Amino acid sequence: MTFFGLQWALPMMLLLLPLALLPWFTHNQDKTVAWSHFVPVDPLSDMIGLALKTLASLVIASLIFSLAGPYIPEQTVERVGSGAEVVILVDRSRSMDDPFSTRGKALAVNRTVGKGDSKRRIASKYLLEFVDKRPDDRFGFVLFSDKALDLLPLSYNKDSIRATINASTLGKGLSETNIAKAMIKAAEMYGKETYNGSRTVLLVSDGGQEFSDEDKRTITELYKRETLTLYWIYMRSTTGLSIEEESDDDSWKNTPEKRLHKFFKELGIPYKVFEIESVKSFSEAIDTIDKKESQTLIVEEIIPRESKLEPFFWLAMITMLILVLAQFYTAWGVRKAHE
């Protein structure tokens, strides 16, 4: 129910508003005077009497309004900001539980599930920093192994995306990886939304995959249609050539990582790969993406529900204080008259 431009939690309480007229029906305690001309005309007293009754009615009405629970409902306001819409794809394969070490160091044999130096833990740390430094961005999140799970649709709620990123580090990784499903899922998430500005897909993975011809056609069509930008944070192993390097070694040319990188370059959309070999290079990659993805963006800001009880309580309290002071003044005047 809308009244005075406000919503009311208990609108039935407004039916008590006629009680505000009670001060105007008080019993007349004036004495009867035989000859009314003995009573002097006092317009000031009449005005004060009317004012006191009005104040008493205002107190009752304010208290009734307070009991009705006035509030301004949650609103969505559009404004122009600077940033992007970002869908984050995080690999949940078993290899992401390996320790994250710099190139040239020996790779530990044991997995590090639950420890701070696993690839997934390091990735989540810097993804959280990325989210924190981009207040106007809208984020979505997809976690993938053999299946792609859209854990969070595109949202401005930073608490939700932080909680989702933290949850992605729990448990053990799975043996299979399907990057194609994750990429298709990300594009489909954008397909459900109105275009508001820069659209980005951020893939975090430590390996590649050979896509089928059908997956290639689907991904190419979707990514061009939705006008997407693709970043691949490739958390490479501690050995091997750079994904950007050319080599005569056929075994290197045909690795899943190399073939996936080649496909991404042929998509016909903005694309960049970041080969991550250390914590420092991960930080630099995140900073680079942060600087590049700062375009004009229509931001939907959610203004939470706001209670309006306080103004009515203050009005009732101040008005009652005036009435109490008036009573004290009346009592003081009567006492002075009898002295």
Note down, in words, how this protein is organized.
It is a single chain. The chain is α/β, with parallel strands linked by helices and 339 residues long. It folds into two domains: 97 residues; 223 residues, von Willebrand factor, type A domain (Rossmann fold). Strands 7-6-5-8-9-10 form a six-stranded mixed beta sheet, sandwiched between helices. A four-stranded antiparallel beta sheet has the order 1-2-3-12. A two-stranded antiparallel sheet has the order 4-11. Helix 2 runs parallel beside helix 8 and helix 4 packs parallel to helix 5. The longest helix has 30 residues.
Describe the SSE topology.
Elements: E1 2-3, E2 6-8, H1 43-67, E3 70-72, E4 75-83, E5 85-91, H2 119-132, E6 138-144, E7 148-155, H3 158-167, H4 179-191, E8 199-205, H5 213-225, E9 228-234, H6 250-253, H7 256-265, E10 271-275, H8 279-292, E11 295-303, E12 306-307, H9 309-338
Parallel strand pairs: 5-6, 5-8, 8-9, 9-10
Antiparallel strand pairs: 1-2, 2-3, 3-12, 4-11, 6-7
Helix pairs in contact: 1-9, 2-3, 2-8, 4-5
Regarding CATH, which class of the largest domain? Answer: Alpha Beta
* Average pLDDT score: 81
* CATH superfamily grouping of the largest domain: von Willebrand factor, type A domain
Overall tally of domains: 2
The class by helix and strand makeup works out as alpha/beta
How many individual helices?
9
N to C succession of SSEs: EEHEEEHEEHHEHEHHEHEEH
Radius of gyration: 35 Å
Which stretches are poorly predicted, pLDDT < 50 over at least 5 residues? 102-114
Q: Per DSSP, what share of the residues sits in E-state strands of 2 or more residues?
A: 15-25%
CATH topology of the largest domain: Rossmann fold
* Global morphology: rod-shaped
Topology, number of strands: 12
N/C terminus separation? 57 Å
- CATH architectural type of the largest domain: 3-Layer(aba) Sandwich
